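User: For a benchmark we're assembling, each entry needs the component sequences followed by a predicted structure for the full assembly. Here are entry 17's components. Please fill in the structure.
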Amino acid sequence: MSDHTADGLRELVATFLRTHDPRGDRTGFLRARFDAGLAWVHFPPGRGGLGAPAHLQAVVDDAFAEAGAPDNRPRRNSIGLGMAAPTLLRHASEAQCRRWLRPLWTGEEVWCQLFSEPEAGSDLASVRTRAVPDGADWVVDGQKVWTSLAHLARWAILLARTDPDAPKHHGLTYFVCDMAAPGVRVRPLRQATGEAEFNEVFLTGVRIPDSHRVGQVGHGWAVARTTLMNERVAIGGRPLPREGGMVGVLARLWRDRPDLRTGGLHEEVLHAWVRAEAARLAALRLRQLVAAGQPGPEGSAVKLSFAELSQRISGLEVELRGAEGLRHDDWTMRRPAEPDLLGRTATYRYLRARGNSIEGGTSEILRTIIAERVLGLPAEPRVDR
Amino acid sequence: MTDLLYDSDEEALRGSVRALLAAHAPWQRVLAAVDTGEPYDAALWRRLVDQVGVTGLAVPAEHGGAGAGYREVAVVLEELGRAVAPVPFLGAVVATRALLACDGSALLRQVAAAERDVALAVGFATAPDAAFDAVTVGPGPTLCGRVVGVADTAPGGLLLVPTGDGLYAVDAAEPAVRTTPVVSLDATRPLVDIDFTAAPARRLATGEPAATAVTAALTAGAALLASEQLGVAQWCLDTTVAYVRQRHQFGRPVGSFQAVKHRLADLWVELTEARAVARHAADRLGDTGTEAALAAALAQAYCGPVAVRAAEVCVQLHGGLGFTWEHPAHLYLKRAKSTAIAFGTADRHRAALARLVDLPGPGTVDGVTDRCTGR
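Assistant: Structure for entry 17:
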């Protein structure tokens, strides 16, 4: 449906900027940008978009950035923008989209994700949190874990069991939970780095109106798959330049500190540099495929490689530093909105990187997904379906 | 910005090469030729030259070529790798690159029109930063010396011979040139040792221009070999996936076992990256300066080992079948392992990268590392 071009979108932004002062009220400006369809241009008209090709988003973002316009602080609402929004777009009603999408995009309302549970990690479909109908509401009881942003979020996407007798993938329903509702308790979950990016969330008799159900009762797994697919294919931000990631930290350290160099570590640094550059080019190729309208499954490869590389490189950096590698900056409990990978000691990078092959789908699960969905290999026999 | 995709012309070229190879170079035919002592398939080479025009692809139109480029050459090499096709294309591309760099325009026209086969007379393992002192120049000029393990030479073809001071053209049919076939690890890419005993030669370039031409040729070889390796690896992955889907043990497809799946998933990830690296190397060959050298070094540091792993996984996951002579897996294993040494090992290319991106080794003095002591 798209007759949109980069030039056409630049013109739309220019027109918008003539009537909206980018240095005026921040929220007002962002709301107007949403209403003009310049929020996420590939979304449909009326929902913050124009139905334009997704790759033209960068053109719009660049044009606003050049004008000094405020952005919607996307990193503060990564779950909302990256996962909740595409799920709502695909599965929510017109009224639900109208209520939730604009404040989500502007950042007025932060979102989190109530999926994982202590007994449901990789095997997410085995969630036990119950939702029981009661009049026009559902009453929810259970415990969720590894919830980033829960302490800042106004809304959560929630996967709960509504039919304990159905086969496990068929007894689930997808809701939007008000994090300010009575019965929602958020507790920081301190991790190996000493800080708490994540939370445990306890749900005790939480009432969710049926109007906050997304998709049909019992169809929660299909809705959740949309969310998870977006988790795995999301590639935000700009393409990295050479040495743009963690390998740059290692390379600069190697150059700055001849006293640390040994023959064995030299080999390892070169191996890591080669792998990182190959992974960077693969991510760049994926972007080019998406821009050409041929999105492929390469996103899974990018995530697997990223996890492996960040672990290997950060471990190498600690070792290279030798005696300095024994020193950590601070174990004080903090509540960062996102990990501070470049601002802290190598030990922090090393410890935080351990999570990279666990969060957002473990590397083992990812390999199985690649094997089955990309390569078409048969599934293992299962006892739970 | 580097374009890492394939355009529609490139895909069309791939289609015609693939169809030609499917019709005239099925693996059964390639395997049978190994036992005949006639390793190169001259008829297949003729078809590629006449029907696809492969020898002129990277030659500019003013020299009688198609004026396409190395991106297209790379696509042809992917397909040749996928078929372990026994044709001297890579060697021809490398030698043509040397001619392009030193204005051998009359020769270039002959080569582009495929009137003559041409090869660079250096060992197949020669890295772009190698020095050449095996052949010396006498009066005439004439050449004396011995070059071992040269790939892609043709009887009656033209040899481009680097020496310590220049680059010379020698007719391989000269009596003073003796070529001795080697029993090579990769029988689909035969090697020869060449003795020059006062062989009459024509000087193409001397000094710096000659060295530049040879380095450019070997850099192109290293960069483009990555696409052949990608083709080899892709065949290995595709063939193995197809096999483990239908091979049953313990009452279920072998490909349903996680230990098998995860090896193949890892291989797919590596192939995804190798494709980006190989496309990058082919795309950058048009550049002058260090970017082409850097992309070529990266290509051989990364893609060679990927092809070897792919072939080794292919043999392993075919079980006993993969270890037999009658299954083609060994052809790919031999091709992959040979190419991992060709134009310099991955280790040589990592050392080149260390210089190119300023990651010097311990005890480096003026950019030269003592790799023996590591100090």
